[in-house]
Amino acid sequence: MAEATERKLTRGDLRKAFWRYFWTFQFGWNYERMQSVSYAFAMLPILRKTRPGDEEFKEAFIANLNFFNTNPVLGAPLIMGAHAALEEAGATLDTTEGFKVGLMGPLAGVGDTLVWALYNSIIFSIGAQMAIAGNILGFFFAWVFMFFPYLGIRYWQFFWGYEQGVDLVGRMSGGALQRVTEAATLVGLVVVGGFGVSIVRLQTILRWEREVEIPEGVATQIIDVQEQLDAILPQLLPVAAIALCWWLLKKKGWSPIAVIVLLFVIGFAGGALGIFG
User: Fold this and answer.
1) Which of 12, 164, 199, 216 is exposed most, by the fewest CB atoms within 10 A?
2) Among residues 57, 73, 35, 271, which one has the least CA distance to residue 154?
3) pLDDT score, position 188
4) Between the CA of residue 71 and those of 25, 75, 108, 267, what are the distances in Å?
5) Confidence label for 1 from pLDDT (cuts 50, 70 and 90)
6) Does the structure show a pLDDT above 90 at 206?
7) Rounded Cα–Cα distance for residues 224 and 209 (Å)
8) Which run of H or of E encompasses 214?
9) Is 75 left (phi over 0), alpha (psi -120 to 50) or beta?
10) Is residue 210 scored above 80 in pLDDT?
11) Could you tell me how many helices (H) and strands (E) the chain has, helices first?
């Protein structure tokens, strides 16, 4: 769409908006309007070019302080780039605000699934596994695979959204977002579930002793409870712990803090009583 009109924005204007977004997007976050403060701040270089009059600039700036909330990695830069194209084309404030509201919800669902539930879970699980093994590179692994991929995907989204303009709405329709979300959720559950038993380390040191008769007399038989559990199902206790956390969070509505406190109490008591080790 941006190609069909006389350009008011330069590549430099777009880059200024992008870097403002990249470095400050969660600044000024609040419960009333969520990300609107940083969104308006990032759009200032665009608004100053597309709405040069003092009054229209003021009106646009205030409008961009309306409630805004979506995924900051996968969603926000796409909307912002397309918004810049709309501003350049002379769209009304009602149009730009409706555009933002229409996309921020669906993109939040896709972004939260792909970024928080899938990608972050995988990267931090790998980094945590390296750290548990005593490898300091676990920290750097997580940092590198957070910063650079997120920078690249944000930059691409912003300028792709700018080139698409209003056509972005059509490309986001047709149930494509829902299908991507469902597929990502399934993959994420499988991957995170596989990592769970390797990160959660829980075993019992209980042993059961009994007297048994043998031809030579009476002997003491020691039965290792952990060995018996492993014979039934390897990693049974870690799986049970994960299942307990899921049940409390999803079925009983417990908060994560309450679950953490419960795990702490169980672990401390179990260790003191000689159950876990």
Assistant:
1) 216
2) 73
3) 57
4) 11, 5, 5, 36
5) very low
6) no
7) 9
8) strand 207-214
9) left
10) no
11) 12, 2
End-to-end CA distance of the chain: 64
**Total residue count of the chain as it appears in this document:** 277
Tokens of 174: 């047709």
Measured CA to CA, the distance from residue 86 to residue 8 in angstroms comes to: 11
Give which of 8, 19, 92 is closest to 50, Cα–Cα: 8
CA distances from 138 to 125, 152, 192, 201, 244 (A): 10, 22, 17, 18, 28
Instruction: Determine the longest span between alpha carbons in the chain, in angstroms.
Output: 104
Q: Phi-psi category of 217—alpha, beta or left, where left has phi over 0 and alpha has psi -120 to 50?
A: left
Please state the pTM of the whole predicted model: 0.67
Can you tell me the mean pLDDT for 14-30? 93
Bridge partners (DSSP) of residue 15 are none
